[in-house]
Amino acid sequence: SQDELAPQPVQALKKQRIKHISCGWAFTVALSHSGELFSWGENKHGQLGLGDTKDRFLPVMIDALQLPRTRDRPERTVKALNVSCGGRHVVAVGTNGRVFTWGGVHRSAFLALGHGADRNIEVRQQARLVPGIGNAVHVAAGGTRDGAASSLVVRADGAVLAASNEPNIFRPVLPLTAATVWAAFSSCGPPSRKTM
Fold first, then answer.
1. Of 48, 73, 144, 146, whose CB has the highest number of CB atoms within 10 Å?
2. CA 20 to chain centre
3. Which pLDDT band, with edges at 50, 70 and 90, does 37 fall under?
């Protein structure tokens, strides 16, 4: 293949109305207006959310975000509202305000997924619901090539929750309330050892 010096259309997505795109380290996730997610690129750490670690050179639709089955409710799917790629992981918020994460099994990056110390690599290759977070409206992920990672969630009440290599679950960034600050948008870069 030959390098392109000018932007080119992604032909595999020409029938989709894409509203948002996010790039990680050598991979991309696109979100359509209808709430579907498409991913392509490097997949060594399951960051494409396709249930395996095979690289993809063309966009592939990610299976729906799944809410777990309970005794009272069968498993059901939700559409994506927002998505953000870190270096090797992805954070998405569903139209129901719930947060999902996947990828990030390299070194300690799995901690930024908000699932605690669960290191099940196979589970990390597909979107997984983060327990205990609702009313999310925006997510942001950051990270570096060497595996450092961070994730942010903004709730409808303006509260900002963060997870990074430590602590390994989503916690409030500061004792912020809707009365003191309204967070409308956030973006992550490499986590700072001084602040996280």
1. 48
2. 13
3. very high
Q: Which of 54, 135, 40 is nearest to 85 (CA)?
A: 40
Q: How confident is the model at residue 61 (pLDDT cuts 50, 70, 90)?
A: very high
% pLDDT > 90, the chain: 37
Answer whether 0.70 is exceeded by the pTM.
Answer: yes
Rounded to whole angstroms, the Cα distance separating 94 from 92 reads 7
Q: How far apart are alpha carbons 44 and 120 in whole angstroms?
A: 15
Q: Provide φ and ψ at 116, rounded to 5°.
A: 75, -145
Which one, of 151, 150, 144, 154, lies nearest residue 184 by Cα?
154
Residue 28 · residue 39 · CB < 8 Å: yes
